[in-house]
Amino acid sequence: MSNIILLSNSEIKKFDEPPVLPSEIKTICFVVNQDLQNQLNNLRTKTNKVGFLLQYGYFRACKKFFLIDKMPVESINYVSNLLNFAPDQINLTEYSSKSATQHQPIILKLLGFQAFDQMVVEWLKRDLVLRINQLPEPQQIFYELLQKLHNQNIEIPSYHRLAEIITDAYLEHESNLLAIISNNLSPEQIECLTTLCDFKELYKFKNIDQSTRPKDLKNSFKVFLEIKNYFTILSPIIKLLDLSPNSCQYYAIWVKKATSLQLKQFTDLNKIYLYLIAFIQHQLYLRQDFFMDVVIKCVQAANNAAINKLNKQEQTTRKQRRAAIRHLKKSRKSYQVLVDEIRNILRSRVLTSIGKIEKIEELITKHDQEQSEQEDQKEIKIFEETLDRATNDNDYFEMLEHLSIKLQNRVSDIIQAIMFNKEETTKKNLLKAIKYFSLQEGTVNKKSPSKFLTKEERKQIINDQGSIKVSLYKSLLFNHIVNAVKAGELNLQYSYKYLSINNYLIDPKIWNKESANIIKQTELGSFSDFVTLMFNLKQKLDDKYENVNRRIIEGKNPYIKLDQDQEITIETPPIEKTETKYIAGLLEQVGFIPIYQVLSEINVLTKFTNFLKHHSIKGVKSTPSAELFIAGIIGLGSNIGINRMAQISIGINKNSLINTVKWYFDLQSLLNANDSILQLTNQLALPNVFIEDPANLHGSSDAMKVAVGVESILANFSFKYFGRDKGVSVYTFIDERQILFHALVMSSTEREASYVIDGLLNNTVSKVNLHSTDTHGYTEIIFAITYLLGITFAPRIKKVSKQRLYSFLPKKFHEERGDLILPSRSINKKLIEENWQDILRFMATIKLKQVTASTLLKRLSSYARANPLYKALKEFGRLIKSYYILTYFDDVRLRQRIEKQLNKVELANKFSHAVFHANDQEFKQGGTEEQQIAILCKTLIQNAVILWNYLYLSQLLANCVDHQDHQEQQEMIFLIKHSSVIAWLHINFYGQFIFKKYRPAVDNVFDMNKVLSLKINNQLGVK
Predict the structure, then answer these.
(1) What sign has the CA pseudo-torsion 44, 47, 48, 50?
(2) What is the pLDDT of residues 398-416, one digit of tens each?
(3) What is the spatial distance between Cα 716 and Cα 725, in angstroms, rounded to a whole number?
(4) Stretch among 375-384, 741-750, 966-975, 1014-1023 having the lowest mean pLDDT
(5) Is the domain of 18 the same as that of 78?
(6) Whose CA, among 94, 412, 751, 943, lies 20 to 30 Å from 841?
(7) Do 158 and 262 sit in the same domain of this protein?
């Protein structure tokens, strides 16, 4: 079997052939020390000496050996001259492969490296066993192995050797799975899988209807029950296979994309079974999550409806309540007068006892006549009832009961079908009620468990006749289920989103055994010594308190003030406006460029379409044309749609385009394609003029709202943003060079903070180490996590309270020292220390990307007060946040930088609207993954335009260098620095597209040798 395709042919050639080394690298790598000179002295011929030194120098530079006959002439001449040999004295054809092989162990010993031998191969195979189970991208494995070899000072082998090892590991992994299937499938399971091979049976399972209308939900629910039945039959083999989420999703997505013929192409029946088993497992997990989302959404909608109706009712009864209060006041006042008069009679010393009685009777008779007793008492009773209802929750419970039928129609069957985790729950009484509800097929009676209800709720579910209020009971049951799931007190047994937090973290047994290796692998070693870490942080925080307060007292910080309540107010003076439209003006001179031309020219330079891989580990022999890839990117990224894109394009076949998008457009491939564009942008000098501090590349993120024009479980109503429609949020990440390094789709009702870490961890090219968000983008836990990731989190803070600040030292200490800014309390160091290993385990889980950080954070945050890991992370985050806020108070330049950087992401969002222009800028995809793919296509277009702009501007600067016009160079750089490269008015995103094997004359537009050799110093000059 041939090896898995890890690199393109051109990339393989680049990997296996010796590069032309820059002169500065040559001077370092070919330096001859005494040990090396001794080895050279032992060689007889000049050719062998040159060959030995060539191998030595190239190994120092690249950590691998190359074939001598591939060595660049420039390097051969350089080494010959270094050894004082005339080039014509050297004939490397005489340097035999045997001599080269004999010299390599000597070179490895000189440089302290280990040979890539069988011991290393076995070591890599053992490591791959753990990695392959996660079924990551083979290319990702390739680069991880290279990094591992580099870190351990081990010789890097040829591409073919590494590809062979990775291929064997994948084959062995799959072979083990197939053996499990072959040896353990029961006749019932085989029959089940044979039925699934029928494409019609399989087809109805492939997509989840996103609608929450009762009729559509019932149809979706029927499909869910069928999948659940298949899953129940297959569950024994599913447990034996123990597929990781990544493995399961890989096989399942392949089945989803495949036709019946493609599925039956496998000659090994067990392989078909493996893919189908994974598909059923994946679909059950997805649908459990989907229907739990439906329950949460429907219960929340019912609660909102109840509250809205109560608010309207409150408005209509407000006059009635006021009248009741006035009447009761008047009534009680008249009764008080009567009581006072009776009291005076009783105290009389003149009247006899009989006289007092007669007088009191006379008074009561008179009072009764005045009050029209019968009529008044009836009114008083009504008024008292009105007021009584206003002071308790009776109306709320009645409203829930009234709305219950609609809610039941949507979620009652779902609750009975969802599989909850019986072990991982703290709500045993609730679980008991769910079980009884399911056994009774949704029927409620007096025996229905009620211990999960509050005391008030148990009182409310019984009516005046002593019978149970069935509809109210069900509404309250659904509410308790939703609250428990959101709080992590009730979890699903099979799920991607709603598992117990312990099911996401690295297994405690593995952690206890391998924590040292895992900490090293995830680069958390600098945080492993808790005592030293906390000592240093304590010192830093106390020094910061002292310095910030001293500067305030000395009047050196005029922007901070304490009001009469001792609340902190901070002013940030606006940055002097030097922004210009200079870049936009330069770019408009090039005319109106079709977006297809921009993407084609950028593809010639970056080969980003090569990163769009077929959804098959082995890949395929032939790949679609670049034109098809670019058409797909424009179709999704501009929101035109694939079908419409084919209709308005010349040179594009509709079926070919649909097939290309289906098999090649996945999240990881698009991320890799985007990264290839960012890598070339990184190589340019011009983007660096926007960096204010070279040691701290500044990034930011912010969300924009996007309407969804189809049914989508992720979308929510928001009159403010979408009117009567629904929508989602698109969260965009950008650095100060205006490079968009990530984008993702999230619910418009979710807090953005949970997704900050996702964007930072998926940033493999733009190494941001200072990141800003607006106020809704941070929590104390985000401060903790970013610190442990080595990133300074720097959000904008609009309102600052002294209650935000914490210290290691008690408040009394700071008061005695005379500090103006005081902490609210001291840090609970003991809590952090007791949970430090779990914090490191949490961080290692995030860094290993076993689960997305947002999933982990949402589950952890839902636990809130009860979970010690949550509390410890929050406490540690308070420490980091306190230090940051003090810095924020004291550093006006930092505050201005944050404002400026957040403005860039707002401009990027405007750019997004220009690119994502079609179909009223509404998503026409309902599924989250489909929406995410569209957004990554949009981001790729944006980054391609930004790179094109940089190349054009760099070309202009390079031409200035040729003309030696230094004043013009400096003026241009100054104007560029104070303008924005996010400009798009010169780009044509509309019109008819003609895809006719476009071959841009890139060399005529961009002289890449000039552009890449362009250097810009810190004084804004050009070299």
Answers:
(1) positive
(2) 889 999 999 999 999 999 9
(3) 8
(4) 375-384
(5) yes
(6) 751
(7) no
